[in-house]
Amino acid sequence: MAFPQHVIEEIRNQADIVRIVSDYVALKKRGSTYIACCPFHQEKSPSFNVHPAKQMFKCFGCGVAGSVFTFVMNIEHVPFPEAVRLIAQKCGLELPQEEVARETREAELERERLLQLHDWAAEFFQEQLERPEAKFAQTYLMERSITEATVRLLRLGYAPDRWDAMGNYLKKRGATTTEIEKSGLVTVKESGTGFYDRFRGRLMFPITDNQGRVVAFGGRILGEGEPKYLNSPETLIYTKGRHLYGLYLAKESIRKNGFVILVEGYFDFALPFQEGVGNIVASLGTALTENQVRLMRRFLERPQVIINFDPDRAGQAATERSLELFLEHGFKVNVLHLPSNETKFDPDTYVRTLGVDAYRKQLKNSQPFVEYLLERASLAYDLHRPQGKVAAVNDILPFLARIKEPIERAVYAERLADRLKLDDALIREELKKAAAGQRTALSPQKIEAVAAIPPVERQVLRLMLSDWEFCRWGLEQLPESFTHKLESGLLFQAVRRRVECGQSLDYDGLSALLTNFQSEQAAREHPGQPNLFRTPSNEAETSPLHAVLAEILLEADPPQDEETRHQAYAQLTAGIQALERQQMGREQSQLQFEVEQAQKSGNQELAIQQAMQKLEKLRRMNKLT
Q1: Considering only CA atoms, which of 188, 129, 197 is closest in space to residue 163?
Q2: Buried b vs exposed e over 512-533: b needs ≥16 C-beta within 10 Å?
Q3: φ, ψ (nearest 5 deg) of residue 263
Q4: What is the C-alpha separation between 138 and 225, in angstroms, rounded?
Q5: What pLDDT is stored for residue 96 in this prediction?
Q6: Contacts 24+ apart (CB under 8 A), 467-475
Q7: Cβ distance 549 to 514 under 8 Å?
Q8: With pLDDT > 90 as the criterion, what percentage of the chain qualifies?
């Protein structure tokens, strides 16, 4: 059968030629294209090229070229209708059932008629916006800094607060009752007879397809009422999740700039676009879909996106859901989290308050997605502790697993390890293996390895436990507020308690205290954070810290003479200074992060204050060197 033209166009828009060709040919990425040995003739060196941005292929050996339809027709040896059917099946798209030509023509005519009704509706809403009744809407647009030129360009309008204004208007233009009911512009009464206007007392935003034809509307309530935004229902010409607000206007700028900015709402698109940020689209306030990602991919030679959703919880959740889709489709993803003091800035508010130049500067400073996820993880976990670092890694690994290119996954895994300062070689290697295998978490056995005490802490504890006077002196140099930040903090805590009580530093006494302290710590653990220091459930089971305690006590031989004692004291002093330098380094890194955040938020006074603190810590560190 001959498929309607709109069906063919829909499949053309949704089909990813790289994905389709990959089902038949092993493609390798080279620059902005993919190459392989041609499936249509024999060759040793690859001359078959697939260009994702242009959605076409070309073999420079045998000369065959064309679209995704041409490729499937040639590779499967099928006619065009069958190629359409195969591609639709691979993309998960539904095709019309077999029907006679007359029915096909009628469906196409109905589609064209609905497009006509929506164009009339847009004209009606535009006319209503100029009337006195729409004074509140006019004032509202002025307050949002939307110019008259933008109102005309976006075809913004107003739905009068009446029950039958749109229905009567469409009837006057010649629409039948059946056409009006199918348009989605009205709501059919529960009785089944009659209808009333769907949009009433709302500021109206026409939603267009890639050709600029109005296919649906979004309406914002003015004043009290719910829902705040109301969109058209699905119709023959509109399917949710297959359109992007503003794409028709933005597509050329997207091609020119080489990346797309994704925002959430109508105004988040309107004001930046009005001020010259042309490569921007909005997701229409719904969860991003695979179809929308494919739409953006069509206009980009190298798929790159900056996600700039609202800073609230819903916006952050939407950002993470979007990340998964973009990474699966090969996008390079940055996230822009607009800085704020008391005001929570979305793109519209930010541009209106601080100007478009400030917004462009923020776009340049947007974070690679790994940096964004790490910043989120730093709020949930203590990244100075191994268990916090592992928890952060396990939060981020599911996103890395969605990246299809092994080399790219490895690069991001290395960057993640560097940013987390994962110095433990075992964990660093496990992270690389997890990324290479697209695993979504580190193995529990490897995670437990991070419970091992760092060598310098082990040395200080061994020397302190070798001599009572060394122990008292060491505890004086290392206050409790300091030792609780160490990986062996619970061991120091147990030693301190026994010394304060004048009790011997034997295994049984220290081990019992350690068990109690572990139970208390487990109760304070962050939700979802792995409890690496497990409390023994019985005497036969010991945690990694219990094993370390036993090893240190066995190694803690008391000094035999003055020379040995002097050497041990020098080693203890050096070890304590090394611990202090490490802690200052961690605090300095944290201050550096806070300085950068203060600068991003525009709080220069706070940034200067934190920079001075950083300088003072650096001076103290130099004295210890």
Answers
A1: 197
A2: ebbbebbeeeeeeeeeebbebb
A3: -120, 180
A4: 19
A5: 64
A6: 467/558, 467/559, 467/565, 467/568, 468/505, 470/568, 470/569, 470/572, 471/495, 471/499, 471/505, 472/499, 473/572, 474/572, 474/576, 475/499
A7: yes
A8: 41
User: What is the per-residue pLDDT across 417-453, written as a single tens digit (0 to 9) for each?
Assistant: 888 877 556 567 777 788 788 788 876 555 544 545 7
71 residue type, one letter: F
Structure tokens that stand for 536 in this block: 């023994």
Rounded Cα distance between 608 and 391, Å, is 32
What would the two tokens of residue 430 be? 């496990």
* Digit-coded pLDDT (tens) for 367-409: 999 999 998 888 888 887 767 788 888 889 899 988 888 888 8
Question: Are the C-beta atoms of residues 477 and 469 closer than 8 Å to each other?
Answer: no
**Calpha distance 510→122 (Å, rounded):** 78
> Tell me, what's the pLDDT at 147?
97
Closest alpha carbon to 235 in 281, 204, 201, 198: 198
Q: Which residues, 6 or more positions from 164, have their beta carbon under 8 angstroms from its beta carbon?
A: 196, 197
Angle at 391 between CA 385 and CA 395, to 5 degrees: 145
Contact 41, 48 (CB under 8 A): no
- Phi then psi for residue 467, to 5 deg, are -155, 130
CA-CA distance, 287 to 296, in Å (whole number)?
15
Give the position of tokens 């009837």: 171
For residues 231 and 217, the answer to whether their CB atoms sit within 8 Å is yes
What SS3 class is residue 188? strand
Q: Which two structure tokens, joined as six digits, stand for 201? A: 């007392």
Please write the tens of the pLDDT for every residue from 517-552. 888 876 665 444 444 434 444 443 456 678 788 888
* Mean pLDDT across the chain: 85
- CA–CA distance, 125 with 203 (Å, rounded to integer): 9
Q: How far from chain centre, in Å, is Cα 526?
A: 23
Q: How confident is the model at residue 461 (pLDDT cuts 50, 70, 90)?
A: very high
Alpha helices in 467-603 (DSSP H): 468-477, 480-483, 489-500, 507-524, 544-555, 562-600
Residue 614 CA to residue 593 CA, distance in Å, equals: 11
Q: Between these two residues, 261 and 110, which has the higher pLDDT value? A: 261
pLDDT above 70: percentage of residues in the chain? 85
pLDDT at residue number 537: 41
